Fold this protein.
Amino acid sequence: MTAAQTAEMRITGRRPSMVPGHVASKLLGLEPENDEALARISIRMHWVHGMTQGLIRAAIGRAGLNGPAAAGTHFALMWTGDAMLYKALAISPWPWKWSLEELAPDVLHKGLFVVATSVAYDRMS
């Protein structure tokens, strides 16, 4: 996840997202003192999210899906799950209310993550 976001940020010139930090803070009841503290929480949450998504991709593979079907399923689960979580935690509105500048990087870095994860999983299995 972190590598995919780094690649997307190089392409788009976007700064790191603090959304993972906001998600972790709300879920764990944390109150970061400043932007630096939020950034530290955010990078840790990115790693946790990436590892969790790796397990989800493995479960998709164990269910018998591979290749593009598995990647598409994984993307749909990740993206919709994240969007619902952001809305439930009042971090953002529904994605159809996002601007293109908000939507495109999110889809791009999650798409890169899903493709990389699926290629790695399919080669290892």
Observations:
- The longest helix spans residues 35-62.
- The CA atoms of residues 21 and 37 lie 9 Å apart.
- Residues 2-124 form one domain.
- The chain has one domain: 2-124.
